[in-house]
Amino acid sequence: MQMKSINTLQNFVLMRQKDYTDRLRSTEQDRDSIEHEVGLFVKTCRERIDFLTAMIEKEEIVGHPRWFSGRAGSSGNADMVAHQHGVVLILSERLHSVTALFDRFRAARFQEAIEKSMPRWRKGEKSKKSNTWADNQEHGKEEASIVQDLKQDLLEEETHALQVELTNLLDTAQETERKMIEMSALNHLFSTHVLHQAQQIEKLYQQALDATENVEKGNKEIRKAIGRSNSSRTFLLLFLFVLPLALLFLHWYN
Question: Which of 11, 44, 124, 191 has a 20 to 30 Å separation from 149 between CA atoms?
Fold first, then answer.
């Protein structure tokens, strides 16, 4: 059931890849909606995996796994617990691979946002300089002082417009950088949690294997003890049977 949910998440991410990475196919609001849906999906899958892990640990202490119906001995329970730990480990790794795939798409989106916010003032500056030159040529015939004033005013306007655009660009870049840092921190935290969870599951899986081996050794010792008990019982019965015969023979002989 959990693997089916993770596969559904992966199919959703791949299906919406072009809509998310291509800004011509969708708006920023649509992208935010896709990112929100993926985040909710990942959170739900993570909570279900944590719930399964907690349930396995609880049932391992009680000693009665409930994932499958039927009864089994101690060796069967240990094998079942080891199998369950392996399943949870596979689910965690599968979910981590899907989140890593979407993180690559999200990084591409932020890179595109940074490139989109690059200044476009050079083209406008070139056009303004061309118009200024034509105006200077036309008004230069009339009066040189007026041309100088116009050039100075135009230069001040261009400088102010450039300062405003650069300020806006800096604010956009800082905001994008802040979001990237937050996303990187969240991704690192999630990756660390998944790695720690996988290490715990591997440790529990190894403990379950050791418990299975101990149970098998115990069963062998029990069978050996039963065999020795049967041998002792046979010898005792034989002794009790021979002793009366010997006594009767001695009594008859006397």
Answer: 124
